[in-house]
Amino acid sequence: MADKKKPNSADDRIVQETDRQFLERTSTGTLIKDVLEKVISNRPEDPIAFLADYFDSLEDETNLVSKAKQILLMTHHSRPVFETNVRMAYNLLQKHKVTKKVYGVNGTVYTDLIKALCKDVPQTVQIKLLKRIECAEHECIKFDVFCSGVFTSCVLLDYVKLSEMLFKSIDLQKSGKADKVLCETVLDQLRTALASNKSDARRVVESGYNLGPDGLYYALDKAMKRGNLNHGAQTLDQFTTEACDAFLTKVKKLR
Amino acid sequence: MTTEDRFSMTAEKYLAKHNILVYLEDSVAQLLEHREENPKTNAVKFFSEYFNSLRDGNHTMFREYNFVKSTPHNRASFVRLFWKCYRQIGKKGDLLSIQEYHSLLSLLCPDFPFEPVQKTARIILLDDALDCLISFADFIYAFQVQFYYEEFMEKCHEIYLSLMQTQRSPRDPVVVPSGTEDTKVHQNSHHPSDGVDAMQYFRAVYPLCDRSTFSTPPGNYLKEILFNVPRVSFYGFLMALAKSESINDHIGRLPPKAELLEGADSELTSPTIRMKTKTRPVSATGNSKISTDRVSSTQNVYTTQPPSGSLSSHSVKGKNSHINSRKTKKRKDSSDESSSDSDTESSDDTN
Where are its TM segments located (chain B) (predicted)? Predict the structure, then answer.
């Protein structure tokens, strides 16, 4: 495709470059090579959307934070490539200008990035998350701090998605509001499961069971049989906020 | 398709599955074409626009047939484009001939061949009386399966013909492969001309599903269609495919039949259509007087008539009701030809 050459008409007033010259000038070859490499290493589920996002962020060169966000979201955080991507995002943010001569990642740009990543998370959760992993504006962010903050945010994103799905499954009437008793039951299960720690092997196994379909069904069934339903309802936001609280207690405070 | 699959396959396979190379090559080719008119093109910006429109499915307009046909995404997007542009016709309840539908398609894709349209008509009209008029809803769903599953349809036809042949042979009762008692009973009670045994046909067609290089409907949807009838004719089978809501869902671009004609027209790209009308290619039959007479004169008649019942029957058994509806369509056509209402959008477009 790149070798295609078209003869130029002699009477063209502007000196026309050949296709090859054009492609070389705009470095389309490297551009395509880069994007192909990204696609193959990240294997996005919807490559077309991926390509669109990629070129969008490439076009917008000024906004470092949104570019870094795009790099981080290229692949799921469980994939090995994620680490490389975090490194890339960090290196990119190194270009951030702090003062006239000082460049680097400081607290401001780090907080902006975390905020951008958690854009779709309920506001209250976002604030609580930042309280835990926030750094002061003037601080220099080292790579390991950056890495753990970003990783926490990505896991939280997944967690929010899962708790939304959980809410939908207990929202029996599909009215956007679930019964409070059912919500409490599920949240209790979640809290007890998250309260377990590594050292106690038996509880780890138990909590895994309690959150499985069987365990949840058993708990919900017990709650239903007690029969004091219709004591109010919870919205999705309330539910996710409470579920995230359970998650955030597990996040170590930076300071 | 699970996540494990995506990461465990080779890079080449992954690229081929999503046709990434097709699009990258096309984007560069388009860039070069674009550059000839606008020498100051920004390559990155162009790619960004190209892939955004590709994602939104707006990339097939005015492209050559070979490109439109090249990937499943393109095919489905093209069907959706057709729906978006010509929904008005469906709303008015117009019935058009296949030549007219072909001209409409040619406006969106200048070198669109006549053959797929003809095949679509065969599905709707069950392989006869091809000069009949067809409603928009009937056409678009049949066109969707015909265009999207073209290769699959051809294979199905081959299989159907070979099954028919074995049936016609004098050794008839013996050649049913692994046939059970039941299927033999069916075979004896039916005349060979009204199709093949549905189970037998299913068994022959099923291996094509999900294993081929071309796109096929999921096997369990075929099960839905073929398990409920004892015998099936080829065009009855295709008609059932076209009417299957689950297959439409699977392709995922057109709304379900009930909502096909609903919704605002704000996204309708009327300016582009009008612009294109000037350079309108002559249709295969030279029938340029497209629908001016019938526009809006038939609208109320069709929607209130009982034949619309055939629209909602989703089984193969709908065959008979469909033939009835076709007859009424014919009658309506002849009675409405005389009346004309020139103050409509379509007539604006054609003139």
Answer: none
